[in-house]
Amino acid sequence: MTIDLPFQGVLPLILVSIVALVVLFIESVVKESERISYPVTLIGLLAAAGSAILGMGQSGTAFGRMITIGGYGSFLSALFLVSAVLTIILSRDYALRVPLRFGEFVLLIIFAVMGMMLIAVSADLIVLFLGIELMSISLYVLAGFLRKNLSSNEASLKYFILGAFATGFLLYGIALIYGASGTTTIGTILENYHSLSSSTIFWCGAGLLLVGLAFKVGAVPFHMWIPDVYEGSPTPVSAFMASGAKSAAFSAFVLLFAHQFEGGDRLRLAIAVLAAASMIVGNVIAVAQSSIKRMLAYSSIAHAGYMLVGLAAGNQLGRNGILFYLTSYTFMTIGAFGVLSLLEQSVGKNLTYDNYAGLARNKPSLAAMMSIFMFSLAGIPPLGGFVGKYYMFVAAISSGLTWLAIIGVLTSLISVYYYLRLVMVMYFQDGSMEYTASPAKASLAVLVISACVIIQLGVYPSSLLTVINSLF
Questions:
Q1: Domain residue ranges of the chain, discontinuous segments joined by +
Q2: Can you tell me the distance from the alpha carbon of 195 to that of 153, in angstroms, rounded to the nearest whole number?
């Protein structure tokens, strides 16, 4: 059903905008505003997520064919909103220990989510760019939110400088594509691909867009910022970057590049090389890490490589697999960083493998959930991470990229070492570290929900794949 009702189609974005204005007003005029802004934010974002889910059956465009309605955009908008809600709940526990202006923190997350949603629903390169910049600027500030912490300041500065560099690539790429095609409407550009493929300017623009988006997802060789930024940022922010921000960047990738272009073998090969390099570099360097946060940072580079495999395949199976992978990866990452955040409140520093020794004895519930997240990240069945990787590799094989699937399988075997190393330390080594903090019930509920979703996606993947198949 095609509709042209902007209000109805962009209701999730409108609701999030209203939440942002309400929270901004509360922070300006109310003392101890966190007590009000916290529930208002959760209720507003959940309402927007519900609106996005209910709108998935719609289709069409709004605002002069600049924004899409329903389907793909609504699905990803709901995913971003759920990611933001889980992050805010975890951040509440974190803020009780760290000197954090929680209201301002939440407000920046809301603005970042607005940018992510704009990316997912964009039907025009200008809207896509605006969404990326709104998300990125909010994340620059969130990375350096602990203003008295030098590592947080360093993370924010590095992210800002390299992010501004990547923005230049995106903007020049859009300009060149507009110069070659005469339009910034994504659908029109894809429809006229055959005539545009002979233009050198068009290919230069596409290459610059590829570089800019590769930076946003943290693909090799544009990954240098990820370890330092993830390590220096507040842990809930690292979780949000690794889940919501990465998913948003991949949503842009799917919009622009997840298509079987006639004569597009050079483009597919370039994406395949990025995927192979990311899987190899991310997994190999992660093995050498002693900090859990840096290990998860390098593993996120590897997971970007796995999702790029589906993008390089350029077929229906690859597109569906990317959305499934993004969903499972969101909950895996929020869960893993969530456990890390709760334990950091006890010891007050970035944790190493040694700090986790004996965790199963001191905090058995946290150790059990962390094990589930590690098993899923490693791709061990029957969990969501395994199904996601399976679809990536099958998509590559069906598209004639068997060599890329082989690299993916071999690098997955490497990842088993550093993921299961953490599980072994938690259960089979004794440690002297005492974890005395008692996490809030809401934070524990986030971890339980994330673990249950991962198990459900692994045992019954068709529950999500049925929805995804209807989006394209």
A1: 259-472
A2: 48
